Amino acid sequence: MQQSAQPSVVAIEAERFRQFIMGVTDYAIYMLSPQGVVVTWNAGAQRFKGYHPDEIIGRHFSMFYTPEDQAAGRPARALELARTTGKFEDEGWRVRKDGSRFWASVVIDPIVDPHGELLGFAKITRDITERRVAAEQLERAREALFQSQKLEAIGKLTGGIAHDFNNLLSVIMNGLELLRLSKEPAIIAKSVDTMARAAQRGASLTQQLLAFARQQPLKQEAHDIGRVIRSFESVLHRALPDAMHLSLQMEADLPQAMIDPTQFEAALLNLVVNARDAMKEEGEVMIDLAAVTLADNEVDRLSAGRYVRVVVKDSGEGMTPETMTRAIEPFFTTKEVGKGTGLGLSQVYGLVQQCHGALTLDSRPGAGTSVSLYFPALPAQQESNLNQTGAGAEKVLLVDDQPEVLETAISLFSHLGYEVLSAHNGMQALETLRRTPDIAILFCDVVMPGMSGVELGKAVRSDFPRVKIVLASGYVTSSLRDEMPDIGSFELIAKPYRLSDLIRTLKAL
């Protein structure tokens, strides 16, 4: 009696489990045959896909995919990966019965018998459209807030930048007067050198301001953080009033780290501005840069290894323990209403997290505050590989509609050892490429009459896929990005560029 009752208990439990699965409404849970044909269909699948079981059982599950995914063979690839790897997980657009699309999270598990024979697949689908939309809205809001923070920093620097530019213009104007009046070679040479330095300084200031003001794709590259700070030092000085002092301490021969220099400069400026506000009328801000070797979890769950540490320390009022626990929260600020957004430190924290580093705070009331940023250092061998150059006798095609700019570019590339060809517009460039198939690099201005640099780049990428492409622009505005949405897919270099900028960009290729 006991043996004959056992199968009945198993059958009852199996039926209960089947009814439980069929009644789930938040998940589409259904079975597929080994060929991908729908075998079962639960309430959740019917709720957000729109099909009654009678309409869908017996049909192939690929009908839920978009036409472009079907053409790319994604349904068959999903089943093959599930069968060969034991599970398939994916996110993507799926199609409801009414033709509308939803963003789905999909899991496919193969079902096999005790002998390993494939019986079919269990498929679980969730509609996560709202989560995806919320994530996109959050990212857009984060980017808008980051832009707002950068513009706030520019507003604080405006007076100092204007002062710098007036000084630079004075140097250039006085130098031109000396050139007109003097015939002595030594005075002429000295005036030219002085004006060249002033012009370069003005170009650097312009690029730094544009880097903050504009929206641009952020990308991490290997950089010497010390050099980045040195090139940005004057802007940091301008952020402090005359009664405050900025000092830099940097170790020699620091390893490189993977950072986005523009975002790093914005973070550093935020820390210096915070330090300034904490010191009220006078004090000292110290930036200390060093290489450190950490043990596992010695700093905020960082793994053992070598790091580049950037410390920004002020002699201000310091923070209470309660303030420190909330310091990196977005919108949290101790400043008066209208004096701060509360986004500065959270933006810095986001940067170090993006770079797989860490941020630590050390502060006591009346003893100032130290903010330490840790960036993973590149291994010596990887750094050596990045430093290797060698243009050899590669051919480069330079394209610019401004003759003076084109002549300067020709001189710079020739100095680097390239064999240089030039063109004044896009059509001329394409003709040159057809005649000279061994051109290795196209270096082109973005804004040109007729065919733009982006249009030329797309044509070259299509017809001459081996050619590496670099686009040069003085200012990639948001409106220009709207007109040329593909610009972000090319390597960009900012005008005016120097020899060192060219070398770094060509290395990146």
Automatic annotation (TrEMBL):
Gene3D superfamilies: 1.10.287.130, 3.40.50.2300, Histidine kinase-like ATPase, C-terminal domain, PAS domain. The lineage of its organism: Bacteria, Pseudomonadati, Pseudomonadota, Betaproteobacteria, Burkholderiales. It catalyses: ATP + protein L-histidine = ADP + protein N-phospho-L-histidine. Pfam families: HATPase_c, HisKA, PAS_9, Response_reg. SMART domains: HATPase_c, HisKA, PAS, REC. It comes from the Bacteria. Residues 13-86 form the PAS domain. Keywords: Phosphoprotein. Residues 88-140 form the PAC domain. One of its GO terms (molecular function) is phosphorelay sensor kinase activity. This is histidine kinase. Residues 395-509 form the Response regulatory domain. PROSITE patterns: HIS_KIN, PAC, PAS, RESPONSE_REGULATORY. The modification 4-aspartylphosphate is found at residue 445. Residues 160-379 form the Histidine kinase domain. Its EC number is 2.7.13.3. InterPro entries: CheY-like_superfamily, HATPase_C_sf, HATPase_dom, His_kinase_dom, HisK_dim/P_dom, HisK_dim/P_sf, PAS, PAS-assoc_C. The keyword Ligase does not apply.
